[in-house]
UniProtKB/TrEMBL annotation:
Species this chain originates from: Rehmannia glutinosa (Chinese foxglove)
Keyword hit for Nucleotide-binding: yes
Protein name: Uncharacterized protein
PANTHER family: HSC70CB, ISOFORM G (PTHR45639:SF4), HSC70CB, ISOFORM G-RELATED (PTHR45639)
Keyword Nucleotide-binding: yes
Keywords for this protein: ATP-binding, Nucleotide-binding
Region (Disordered): 217-287
Length: 287
């Protein structure tokens, strides 16, 4: 059956270049964008300065409250009564200033105010710290002195290789360190707690380190190494004894009778234990 096929006409396509232009609404030019970036950086810097200023102001306020409580408590014996009263009055002045004229000051003003207060408070804190640390530091030095003195006077064999003169040097250093500590401690014990200390923990540590630096190389000196023993050379008798044995072995192959007699008479005295191969195998047949 025949069908009529519809033939569609070909479409004609024409390409035309269309000009396009970009228009951005609300955009910034390069110059305006740079100004905006600089403005943002300036604002961030301002925020950081404000935050740091607030921290410094809080540090001044915290120091006022903390130091005033300590002056009436654990720092009480480490400051004279007149100095304590004067310092507490100054702390009260700064506290009043913080809530009045100093409510909105710059960072530098708060830093300077804190440094001013610490000039009065740091010496008091230092005296308290020295008093609390001095005992343990002194004990360390005394332990170091006793340890090296006992080692230098010990009869332990592990110290026998150390010269007596070197041990005497160690004892002298221990005596000197002990005398220094005794003199300084006696002077310190006569002073009140609010006075400037003459026996500092740092000086005691330095004395202990100096004593250890001097004594340790002497008392920890290693023992000299034992001389190596040379290997024993083979004796001439043993080297000569091998030849008759080999000759006896050769003679055993000639005849059974001569082999039996040679094995008994030609073995030298140096060969006490003949090798198993030196024993004649034909000796039973000869008998």
């Amino acid at each position: 059956m025949e069908t009529d096929a519809k033939v569609e006409p070909k479409k004609k396509v024409t390409k035309t270049s269309v000009p396009v232009s970009e228009v951005i609404y609300g955009g910034l030019s390069a110059a305006d964008l740079q100004k905006a970036v600089e403005k943002e950086f300036e604002m961030a810097l301002q925020d950081r300065v404000m935050e740091e200023t607030k921290d410094k102001k809080n540090a001044v306020e915290a120091y006022v409250y903390e130091m005033r409580n300590k002056l009436l408590d654990k720092y009480h014996e480490f400051v004279t009564e007149s100095e304590r009263d004067q310092f507490i009055a100054r702390l009260q002045e700064v506290e009043d200033w913080l809530y009045e004229d100093g409510e909105d000051e710059t960072k530098g003003v708060y830093v300077a105010k804190l440094e001013e207060l610490k000039k009065q408070g740091d010496p008091i804190e230092a005296r308290y710290k020295e008093h609390t640390e001095r005992g343990s530091v002194i004990d360390q030095l005394i332990y170091c002195i006793n340890s090296y003195r006992e080692a230098a006077m010990s009869n332990d064999p592990k110290f026998d290789h150390i010269d007596l003169a070197e041990k005497q040097k160690v004892l002298s250093e221990c005596v000197e360190a002990e005398a220094w500590l005794r003199e300084k401690k006696q002077h310190q014990d006569t002073l009140p707690k609010h006075a400037t200390p003459v026996l500092l923990s740092a000086d005691v540590r330095k004395k202990a380190e100096a004593l250890d630096r001097f004594c340790r190389p002497i008392m920890m000196k290693p023992k000299p190494a034992k001389p190596a023993t040379p290997e024993a050379a083979p004796s001439p008798a043993s080297s000569q004894g091998g030849e008759p044995q080999s000759q006896g072995a050769d003679n055993s192959n000639s005849s059974s009778a001569q082999s039996a007699s040679a094995s008994e008479t030609e073995v030298p005295p140096a060969a006490e234990e003949p090798m198993e191969t030196d024993k004649p195998e034909s000796a039973p047949n000869a008998a």
